[in-house]
Specification:
The protein is mainly beta. The protein is built from one helix and 25 strands. Helices cover 8% and strands 43% of the residues. Strands 2-9-8-5 form a four-stranded mixed β-sheet, with no helix packed on it. It has a four-stranded mixed β-sheet with strand order 11-18-17-14, covered by helices on one side. The chain has a four-stranded antiparallel β-sheet with strand order 22-21-24-25, with no helix packed on it.
């Protein structure tokens, strides 16, 4: 008996327009119908943005960088292409950022709770850092993990504005507060004092320049950059680390004698450079 080979239907793509404010991100998503199309028409390994100054896309996550309209194109495994419009609107500007000191028990976890000013700001993307991750670590979403007794300073950095804030986290052992006694309770007060040195003991949102150290802040040029980034104001052999806005390490090196870093291999997008006490932002084109 001869069986006639059937043909799969042509795919129909639904890729709605995307609109989001500057400083926000979202997952790029689309739908395909009917359900029995070729599987290669469903898989989309490549996303491209027409204007990388307005938005970038990496691993399916679209990030809004500047106001305007551009086009996002999806290319499937089978080679089919389809696009949608990406509109980036003005941000509700962040003017203040604050964290409260806290005490957490060893072996537990909880989200950090930053205070944004104004409350309706759209610039809520933060990078998180701990100066003592052996005691208290924090992930890219701001979730705190208490590992062993001690103290750590947790810093939240806004990558939409030059604002940062810090809080002292005190990790206690598994004893109940009643078992710890008054002396250790005094230590808790001491932790609060240490936290006050970061934000003046005030939980109200206070804008803090990222580069507010005592020495002149380093500078980056050009910014945006395509390949070679020059760092002025740092001595040679300074340790330099570059992070994504999600807090993932993308590059680490010692600063060469000519103060030039080759960043051409970095995907386009916003990055955070840390060198000593300085924290700077740059855009890779």
């Amino acid at each position: 008996m001869h069986v006639k080979e059937g043909t799969l239907p042509d795919p129909v793509y639904d890729f709605p327009p995307i609109s989001l404010p500057v400083g926000q991100e979202q997952t790029v998503s689309f739908s395909v119908s009917p359900v029995d199309v070729d599987i290669r028409d469903r898989k989309a390994p490549a996303f491209t943005i027409e204007n990388s100054k307005i938005a970038t896309v990496s691993a399916g996550i679209l990030t809004a960088l500047g106001e305007g309209t551009t086009k996002c194109t999806v290319t499937t495994v089978s080679g089919k292409e389809f696009s949608t419009t990406v509109t980036v609107t003005p941000a509700v500007e962040l003017t203040g950022l604050a964290l409260k000191d806290l005490t957490i028990q060893e072996g537990t976890e909880q989200p950090m709770a930053p205070t944004f000013t104004p409350e309706g700001t759209t610039q809520r993307m933060l990078s998180w850092f701990s100066d003592n991750p052996d005691v208290a670590a924090v992930d890219y979403q701001g979730r705190l993990y208490a590992r062993k007794p001690g103290k750590a300073t947790i810093t939240a950095l806004s990558w939409a504005r030059k604002l940062q804030t810090s809080a002292t986290v005190t990790v206690t052992d598994h004893k109940l507060p009643a078992e710890e006694g008054g002396g250790e309770g005094g230590e808790g007060g001491e932790g609060g004092g240490e936290g006050g040195s970061t934000q003046g003991g005030d939980s109200s949102p206070v804008p803090t320049p990222v580069d507010g150290g005592q020495s002149p802040a380093p500078t980056l040029s050009p910014n945006p950059v395509s390949d070679i980034l020059t760092i002025s104001g740092l001595p040679p052999a300074s340790a330099v680390s570059i992070y994504t806005p999600m807090g993932q390490l993308a590059y680490s090196a010692l600063l060469p004698e000519d103060s030039r870093l080759d960043v051409h291999a970095l995907p386009p997008g916003l990055y955070i450079l840390r060198a000593g006490p300085a924290t700077l932002r740059f855009i890779k084109q």
